[in-house]
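User: I've been trying to design a sequence by hand for this structure and keep getting stuck. Would you show me what you'd pick, starting by listing the structure so we're on the same page?

Assistant: Good idea, let's start from the same input. This is the structure you sent:
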């Protein structure tokens, strides 16, 4: 059961509509949560006005903040009559302002819109999105501008083939959250997991290697683990999907095939050299999706910047 108390909606003053605010308000209606609208503002010309005194520069900054606050209050009135707390932050690193505010206000969820191309199909994730996915300790919901219809499909992207304890715990968390959202939105949960194709290089180097037998063994193992996982959460077999291929391709294909409204995925938040050399599977998956994405962290995750 979802029990949000505080939802942080990230406002974008460079667009005409606010999908994040709209989605946050929709969730707040269903959970009776408080919505906080955060607008991060920064004018780089502020750094270049060295000829002005400190007081003059601060007056300029305050004028910008006050103007943005008035704009945001008007914008909120377009969407709702319910009270929404407004927070304006003057900061050049947007993701740090978002994460810091979310932690300070004890938010349960961060909602941010993802940028879309003119055809309203392709989605572009900004550097701020990636920073949030890697470093925000709270669930991050990246949304498009569309309605969540009744009986829509929600995908729980899991890895049933992993024996790593952290990944297994994350599988459970992802599934529970997907089911909670399905209950909240009157939707259907589909479990999706990918398994790797047989390594052709081994078959070439070792002629006696039975690639077909290997493929069948890997497939059977993943299917059995999926059945075991699904039984824990009373998931029907028709909503369990195990496919061969890279996770980013399998999850994206299933999201398109099911016309999914939301994909719930876990991110371990790998940063630095390990991210550069190993790569983040979740990020590769997210970069291929055209629907809303809810990214969650393992229990005990700590943000590297706070």
């Amino acid at each position: 059961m979802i029990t949000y108390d505080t939802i942080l909606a990230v406002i974008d003053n460079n667009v005409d509509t606010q999908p994040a605010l709209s989605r946050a308000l929709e969730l707040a209606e269903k959970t009776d949560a408080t919505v906080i609208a955060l607008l991060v503002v920064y004018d780089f010309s502020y750094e270049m006005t060295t000829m002005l005194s400190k007081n003059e520069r601060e007056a300029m900054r305050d004028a910008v903040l006050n103007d943005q606050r008035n704009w945001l209050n008007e914008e909120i009135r377009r969407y709702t009559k319910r009270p929404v707390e407004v927070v304006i932050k003057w900061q050049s690193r947007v993701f740090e302002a978002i994460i810091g505010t979310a932690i300070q206000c004890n938010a349960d969820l961060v909602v941010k819109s993802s940028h879309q191309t003119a055809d309203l199909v392709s989605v572009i994730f900004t550097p701020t999105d990636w920073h949030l996915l890697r470093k925000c300790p709270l669930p991050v919901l990246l949304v498009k501008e569309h309605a969540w219809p009744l009986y829509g499909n929600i995908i729980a992207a899991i890895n049933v083939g992993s024996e790593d304890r952290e990944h297994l715990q994350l599988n459970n968390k992802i599934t529970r959250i997907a089911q909670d959202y399905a209950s909240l939105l009157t939707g259907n949960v589909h479990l999706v997991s990918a398994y790797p194709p047989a390594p052709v290089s081994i078959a070439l180097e070792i002629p006696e290697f039975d690639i077909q037998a290997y493929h069948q063994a890997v497939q059977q193992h993943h299917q059995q683990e999926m059945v075991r996982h699904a039984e824990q959460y009373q998931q029907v077999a028709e909503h369990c999907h195990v496919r061969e291929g890279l996770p980013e391709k399998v999850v994206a294909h299933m999201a398109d095939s099911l016309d999914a409204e939301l994909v719930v995925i876990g991110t371990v938040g790998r940063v630095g050299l390990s991210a550069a050399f190993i790569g983040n599977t979740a990020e590769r998956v997210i970069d291929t999706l055209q629907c809303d994405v809810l990214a969650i962290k393992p229990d005990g995750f700590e943000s590297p910047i706070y």
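That's my pick for every position. To get oriented when you compare it with your attempt: The CA atoms of residues 21 and 277 lie 36 Å apart. DSSP finds ten helices and twelve strands in the chain.
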